[in-house]
């Protein structure tokens, strides 16, 4: 069966028009003769949206009874049985009602696609799983409903339904998004102008990255190697020299000239001298790069220009920034055009900026020898011999004096040494023989004839050649050792870069894969454990080109693996690091499980300590009262007897409350709290809580709107939450002030705020305020065990809500409890 196609309408926030656009598209497809049905649409009481449903076939929803609450949701089986061409499925991140075939609506969509039904769906950017932390930091709202990024990225078509923040706030003010009772709370909370602007930017950037990945995949599938300039990507080549800061700042300015410009820097660890000249220079440049918003990369390559250009193409760089060579003109003339000219020649359609700096054109230095003398160096050495040899002979001929034969010999010897240093053994032997013949022909009597009158002359020529061979041997051995040392430095540099990524907080396994792919030039690297892929870097067009088994049982797969024997040893080292990272991830999960057990043990120990310390007082008071009542030798009046009975009764009631709290916190910690969520009006739990604490209008300021929708909560647990919050607020409220209790509906939920004007909670203590056995000050035990807020959080989260603390304007503490509206199970924002 042919799989259906998925089209996702992505929005930055509720109210931008995703559902409206989806329904309009349904009408358009229906007018073209397509079989379109509405599988599920959430109109949120918006008249314009509800009107668009008319004229489209709607598949009836299934109704699920859950703990006395009727919940309706999409009927997956009915839609599959109907088998339309296109199904309209609203709110992709929605959590299905209990008892549904799948937990999440996106799983229902997968089932529809597998059945050959195409789907048009909607989702807001705040529901993307990878953006949960970012959205929480921007809006302060925790998104309980999320959809994996991979589900949306796998869609055949993704469109952004865009609306400017000002226009969206105007729609909200006009009552086109939420009812009038919710407008003020929405405008002052989630729909602030800054929030909407940030969410809009996130949505556009997320889609831009998705388009960028799709473009890379298309180019890889069609074998397109040349660059497509979709955005400016500036790559700065760092050598480790002091000019790096100048290059980074210039690259940042170039990237900033275009919207969406990206900055990256690469350091090629090689064996021809391009390495950091000062120990801390590269580290400082890396810090500066992070401050400029760029990314750092490190690769290993014997040919610096080719490696640099190849990496630039792999990251789709549009511009390369390099520094002017530090070599002098004489050094450049002796060793060739240099890296900069080669990069310019090989860059093709990538623009190259050659930036001057104060270190450009340094003093003369002997050529930096590589690990093994390349063919180019050998050819250059022969060229030096053929050019400088005749030139030296011509210069020496002007002082043709038999007494100057020593100078002639030393001059030719110097030429042989220079050639040996440049090209090694064979050019040196060639130059030694050629210079020996030239010396005999032009400067030894009889002139212009090659004769050996004395046997010692032949011995001298042989020694001349031997000296050249020995010098070239020393040069070659030094080059091999230099190559080994520099190769080791390159490997160390790579491993240091990997370790640095991990130390900066990056995921160890992901950082290892990213650095491995960059360093060795793979197009894709991933770890596979059975059917699971814990981490991947790059892209795989098809089956992997090579695989390696790791001792942990995982398999390392490569795409585009280069066949370079010199890199296999380093790759084996990296494989060991990857295997250690896989094992570390497994041990981390085990440690987390062990920490949970340890935390439970600590709670049990704390409970036992609290019982021994805080429960003793009411037991002692009750015991003393009862013993006095039973004493036969003490005559008690009726008033005394009544006082003792009251003391015993109050002590036993206090003991019952303490033991109930201890039992409740134990259940919360063990995860066995019994919760029965029902549609509950807040006034039905707030009023009994006030009566229980004997708080009246002089103590509490109530603001509970009459049209407040019921919440889905356990009435008994919610009353305990309110009692604990009111008791805590009343305890710390200054004399003469009132505790404020207010509620408002917002975004599919109801927020209950309990505020006081007491001392508040210091910023560094807010992480501990919901921990058991924590009291402000912890100076005495007259105020209970410190379980009130801990129980409030446990009960609230057990009912599917959230609880947070905030500052009260003017000073004090505000505790905010957020619960879902009945009929909107688990929904934070729609």
TrEMBL record:
* Residues annotated as domain Histidine kinase: 610-823
- Membrane topology category: Multi-pass membrane protein
Q: Where are the transmembrane segments?
A: 378-398, 410-443, 455-475
Grouped into one coarse class, the protein's main location is membrane
Q: Which organism is it from?
A: Curtobacterium citri
Q: What InterPro entries does its record include?
A: HATPase_C_sf, HATPase_dom, His_kinase_dom, HisK_dim/P_dom, HisK_dim/P_sf, Histidine_kinase_KdpD, KdpD_sf, KdpD_TM
Q: Which reaction does it catalyse?
A: ATP + protein L-histidine = ADP + protein N-phospho-L-histidine
Any keyword Phosphoprotein? yes
Output this protein's name: histidine kinase
């Amino acid at each position: 069966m042919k799989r259906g196609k998925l089209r996702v309408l992505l929005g930055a926030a509720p109210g931008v028009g995703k559902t409206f656009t989806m329904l309009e598209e349904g009408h358009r497809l229906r007018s073209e003769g397509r079989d379109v049905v509405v599988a599920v649409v959430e109109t949120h009481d918006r008249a314009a949206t509800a009107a668009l449903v008319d004229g489209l076939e709607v598949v009836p929803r299934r109704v699920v009874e859950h703990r006395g609450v009727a919940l309706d949701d999409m009927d997956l089986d009915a839609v599959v049985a109907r088998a339309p061409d296109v199904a309209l499925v609203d709110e992709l991140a929605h959590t299905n009602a209990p008892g549904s075939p799948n937990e999440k609506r996106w799983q229902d969509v997968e089932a529809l696609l597998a059945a050959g039904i195409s789907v048009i769906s909607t989702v807001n950017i705040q529901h993307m799983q990878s953006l949960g932390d970012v959205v929480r930091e921007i809006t302060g709202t925790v998104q309980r409903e999320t959809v994996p990024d991979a589900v949306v990225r796998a869609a055949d078509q993704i469109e952004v339904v865009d609306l400017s923040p000002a226009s969206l706030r105007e729609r909200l003010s006009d009552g086109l998004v939420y009812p009038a009772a919710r407008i003020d709370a929405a405008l002052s909370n989630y729909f602030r102008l800054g929030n909407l602007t940030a969410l809009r930017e996130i949505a556009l950037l997320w889609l831009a990255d998705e388009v960028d990945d799709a473009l890379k995949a298309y180019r890889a599938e069609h074998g397109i190697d040349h660059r497509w300039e979709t955005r400016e990507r500036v790559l700065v080549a760092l050598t480790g020299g002091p000019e790096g800061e100048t290059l980074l700042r210039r690259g940042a300015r170039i990237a900033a000239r275009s919207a969406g410009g990206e900055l990256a820097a690469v350091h090629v660890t090689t064996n021809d001298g391009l390495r950091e000249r000062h120990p801390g220079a590269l580290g400082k440049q890396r810090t500066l790069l992070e401050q400029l918003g760029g990314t750092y990369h490190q690769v290993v390559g014997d040919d610096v220009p080719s490696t640099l250009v190849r990496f630039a193409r792999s990251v789709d760089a549009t511009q390369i920034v390099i520094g002017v060579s530090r070599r002098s003109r004489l050094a450049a003339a002796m060793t060739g055009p240099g890296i900069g000219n080669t990069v310019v020649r090989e860059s093709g359609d990538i623009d190259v900026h050659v930036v001057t700096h104060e270190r450009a054109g340094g003093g003369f230095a002997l050529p930096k020898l590589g690990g093994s003398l390349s063919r180019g160096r050998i050819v250059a050495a022969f060229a030096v011999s053929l050019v400088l040899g005749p030139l030296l002979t011509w210069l020496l001929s002007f002082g043709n004096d038999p007494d100057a034969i020593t100078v002639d010999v030393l001059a030719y010897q110097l030429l042989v040494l220079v050639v040996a240093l440049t090209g090694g053994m064979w050019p040196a032997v060639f130059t030694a023989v050629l210079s020996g013949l030239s010396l005999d022909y032009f400067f030894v009597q009889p002139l212009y004839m090659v004769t050996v009158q004395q046997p010692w002359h032949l011995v001298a020529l042989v020694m001349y050649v031997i000296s050249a061979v020995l010098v070239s041997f020393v040069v070659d051995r030094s080059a091999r050792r230099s190559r080994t040392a520099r190769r080791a430095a390159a490997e160390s540099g790579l491993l240091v870069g990997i370790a640095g990524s991990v130390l900066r907080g990056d995921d160890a396994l992901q950082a290892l894969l990213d650095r491995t792919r960059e360093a060795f030039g793979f197009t894709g690297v991933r770890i596979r454990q059975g059917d699971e892929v814990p981490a991947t870097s790059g892209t795989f067009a098809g089956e992997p080109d090579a695989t390696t088994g790791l001792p942990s049982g995982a398999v390392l797969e490569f795409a585009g693996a280069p066949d370079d024997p010199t890199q296999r040893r380093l790759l084996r080292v990296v494989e060991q690091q990857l295997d250690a990272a896989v094992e570390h991830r497994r041990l981390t999960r085990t440690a987390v499980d062990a920490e949970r057990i340890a935390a439970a043990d600590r709670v049990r120990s704390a409970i036992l300590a609290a019982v021994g310390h805080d429960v003793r007082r009411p037991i002692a008071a009750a015991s003393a009262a009862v013993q006095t009542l039973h004493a036969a030798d003490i005559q008690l009046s009726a008033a005394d007897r009544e006082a003792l009975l009251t003391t015993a009764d109050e002590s036993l009631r206090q003991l019952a409350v303490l033991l109930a709290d201890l039992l409740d916190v134990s259940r919360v910690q063990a995860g066995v709290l019994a919760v029965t969520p029902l549609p509950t009006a807040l006034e039905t739990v707030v009023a009994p809580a006030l009566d229980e604490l004997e708080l009246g209008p002089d103590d509490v300021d109530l603001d509970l709107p009459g049209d407040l929708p019921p919440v889905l909560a356990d009435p008994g647990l919610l009353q305990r939450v309110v009692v604990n919050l009111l008791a805590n607020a009343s305890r710390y409220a200054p004399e003469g002030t009132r505790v404020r209790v207010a509620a408002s509906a917002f975004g599919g939920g109801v927020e209950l705020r309990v505020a006081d004007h007491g001392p508040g909670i210091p910023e560094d203590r807010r992480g501990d305020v919901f921990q058991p056995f924590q009291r402000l000050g912890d100076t005495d035990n007259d105020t209970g065990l410190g379980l009130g807020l801990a129980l409030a959080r446990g009960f609230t989260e057990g009912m599917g809500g959230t609880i947070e603390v905030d500052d009260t304007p003017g000073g004090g503490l505000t505790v905010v409890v957020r619960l879902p509206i009945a009929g909107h199970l688990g929904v934070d924002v729609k």
